[in-house]
What we know:
This protein has one domain: Ammonium transporter AmtB like domains (Ammonium transporter fold, Orthogonal Bundle), CATH 1.10.3430. The chain is 70% helix and 0% strand. The chain has 12 helices and no strands. Helix 3 runs parallel beside helix 5. It is globular, with a radius of gyration of 19 Å. It is found in: Cell membrane. Its main location: membrane. InterPro entries: Ammonium/urea_transptr, Urea_transporter.
Amino acid sequence: MFQASGTTGCLFLSGILAGCLKYGGTGRPAVFAGAMTALACATIISQSYKKEELAGGLAGFNAILVGCAAFTFLHDATATWGLLIISAILTLPLKLYLDRCFTRFGISSLTLPFIIATWALLYFSQATDTAALYHPGTSEDTCADITFYSALQGLMKGLSQVFLIDSWPAGCIFFMGLWVAERRAALWAVAGSAIGMATALCTGCPWEEIAGGVWGFSPALTSIALGVTFRTSAAWHWNIAVIAATVFTALLQLLLSPALTCMGLPVLTLPFCIGTWTATGTRHICRACSRHTCKKA
Length: 297
């Protein structure tokens, strides 16, 4: 999650493994195996590109998300493994192409390669019946009542759901991974998850969903991106802009989820991408207009 740290990466992989030991009420070790396979494929293939854009671990983060998604949505079958490897490799050219397109607007592709590759994987599997959809059971940790314990679990699950893991212990490990690399990123991640939960609660979303962390992962990513990674100002009013963008991200998920569900597609991290693009793109345009005005003056 925006951290170029080997220690953080090891903790994240540990968190994925911990979550897969008890995933959604049932063990899903295939999720961890898929994540590692996708990460390995993308990292190996990236060596042939020799591009600076893929250095520092940037070749693997979209692929590992595809690996987690493949066995979150599909059964562990031979066809799924084949689709996973193809989709993981596809994230590399997608990232390079999309980054070139977005650079002119002062933004990056973020997790859009993961979204496109996963949607393609799911669409192809459903259209050709090559891999059956997986329907997870209800998590034993899900609580229908609003309690401090369920709220705390939901807060941590908001971090774990970034990797499609329904596990609050995994979320705690992800928090530690962020903490050792950049404490501000860890704090903004928790703040973003909390803002997403609060926004969903205010809009009438079921508490079971909120406590499951599904409304926290995109806002958490937006908070880290704008609060730390792409931050350009230390002024206090920037924090207000980050909070506003995080709320906007949660509202986007509220609008996009039903439409994508009708098409048989998960929303994934699309709200995070649009929310972050909107904020960074607006800043880029304002700066360009300001420079243009100064030149004319």
